[in-house]
Amino acid sequence: MRAMRAVALGFSILVCAWSSYAQPARTFVASTGNDANPGCTLAAPCRSFQVAFSTVGTGGEVVALDSAGYGVITIDRSVSIQVPPGVYAGVTPGLGAAGITVMTANSTDFVVLRGLTINGLGAALRGIDFRSAGGTLYVDSCVIIGFTNQGILLRPNINERASINNTVIRNCSLAGIEMDVATRLAIDGCRIEN
After folding, report:
1. Full-model pTM
2. What are the residues facing 73 on neighbouring strands?
3. Residue 190: CB partners within 8 Å, gap ≥ 6?
4. Is residue 130 part of a domain?
5. Is residue 6 part of a domain?
6. Which structural domain, as residue segments, surrounds residue 136?
């Protein structure tokens, strides 16, 4: 009987230890959030996209709860950044930087960017820098404005795919969208201005 209790106790400790390392499928950011909040939960959201991304599991979602600027982000695995209609979620990179850098490694990786406003203020380098070794980028209902180079740069890779839908790109000095012929790209319902 003692041995069974010891095994049960050991199993319980193992389950608790394992669950503390499991990453959630959904994390949240808010204007009143704090990056020290563990888990970036709905009840205790984080403040920045980067911390919420580092907390969420692969293939999960980062959701903006209210209007604010949420900082630049570097993405290296599958994730969806979701901004509900009516919420402003801003990304404003500094001088010579990119707003969102995507560096996925696998052809099965996918990154969804939905509802973001990425503003270079006429000084930042580019809005989205997709330098993947494979995978798919989905950009939906975003506004990308004011970059010294490209609004979206799709670096060459034969395994790379991108879909840009219902997005406005304006006032980007070099190009709205720049891509290599190796990238497979679908564009629908977009406006590229100036």
Report:
1. 0.86
2. 100
3. 164, 165, 166, 167, 168, 169
4. yes
5. no
6. 24-193
